[in-house]
Design a protein that fits this description.
By secondary structure, this protein is of the alpha+beta class. Helices cover 51% and strands 11% of the residues. Strand 3 and strand 4 form a beta hairpin. The protein is elongated. The mean pLDDT is 93.
């Protein structure tokens, strides 16, 4: 069947982009990715900076090379809205920079604060440093992101969470001379905590490798994950992350660590709930619904 030319009315949502065209024409054989490319080219802006929604119902049109225009619900004469998302930064760079904070702060304060670090203080610094080294390596070599960029503002918000709450907050209260970690180690608490930490870190890594296998390099496709923990909860990577931080709390003996763990688990729980809803929406009957999204019997 011969392709037709479709013309769409283009309107700004919020502050308009410079040189945003009033209308755009594409072949009916085009994809939503072609729509993004043409609008970005006409507006002289990054393709990652724009978000397109349908004028009819406001639904989002994803930038997907495999999504034909005919399947988006757009027809000849339809209106689309284009929103400027503002300055962007790559997801990978944000992860690298946010994890860099605690990775630098903990060894620094470990050497600056205590005159003679205790065994628990040394163990705390080792576990936390290894945790964030693992995070950095996963960011560089394991994670495959569905979106190339995020708003630049997120860099400062995310970095505050890690640099302040996981970095300065935990490090100050753990390595100072009056810290509970200065006391004698109780092997009945310390070594089970280390075991829990190790289980959490290895389980988390395994979950990330499983998730990586579902997406091609540079792609944004999704799949249904299976394997260790995935039949139990929606996001075992978050479950294992929580276990690792419980282990860290047992070693540091610090309420500062507990505070970070509670905030982190709360945020991960929200993300896990959203992912469960997305799996149900995208995969329908192919996906086995989970009762628990992150913590079995709890959340």
């Amino acid at each position: 069947m011969a392709s037709k030319t479709l013309t769409f009315s283009v309107r700004p949502r919020g502050k308009p982009l410079n040189k945003l065209p009033e209308a755009i024409s594409l072949s009916s054989a085009s994809t939503s990715s072609d729509l993004y490319t043409q609008i970005a080219s006409s507006s002289k802006t990054s393709i990652h900076r724009i978000r397109i929604t349908k004028g009819s119902d406001g639904s989002f049109i994803p930038n997907t090379p495999s999504l034909p225009i005919s399947n988006t619900g757009l027809r000849d004469g339809s209106s689309i809205y284009v929103k400027d998302l503002g300055p962007q930064i790559s997801w990978r760079l944000v992860y690298v920079l946010e994890y860099l904070g605690p990775l630098l702060i903990h060894p620094l304060l470990y050497f600056l604060l205590p005159s003679s670090p205790s065994f628990l203080q040394t163990l705390s610094c080792t576990l936390i440093t290894l945790h964030f080294i693992k995070r950095e390596l996963e960011t560089l070599f394991v994670h495959r992101f569905s979106s190339a960029t995020m708003p630049l503002f997120n860099l400062f918000k995310n970095s505050a969470h890690y640099w302040l709450l996981a970095g300065l907050n935990i490090a100050f209260w753990t390595y100072r001379s009056s810290s509970p970690a200065v006391g004698e180690s109780n092997p009945w608490i310390t070594w089970p905590s280390v075991a829990l930490y190790t289980l959490g870190e290895l389980g988390n890594l395994n979950s990330h490798i499983v998730l990586r296998s579902l997406r091609s390099a540079g792609g944004n496709e999704r799949g249904i994950p299976h394997g260790l923990g995935f039949e139990l909860v929606t996001c075992p990577n978050y479950m294992f992350e929580a276990l690792a931080w419980i282990g860290i709390c047992g070693v540091t003996r610090s309420l500062a660590s507990v505070l970070f763990a509670v905030v982190a688990v709360g945020q991960m729980g929200v993300w896990a709930q959203k992912r469960e809803m997305r799996y149900r929406r995208e995969f329908g009957g192919k996906y086995k619904k989970k009762r628990w999204v992150m913590l079995p019997g709890i959340w």
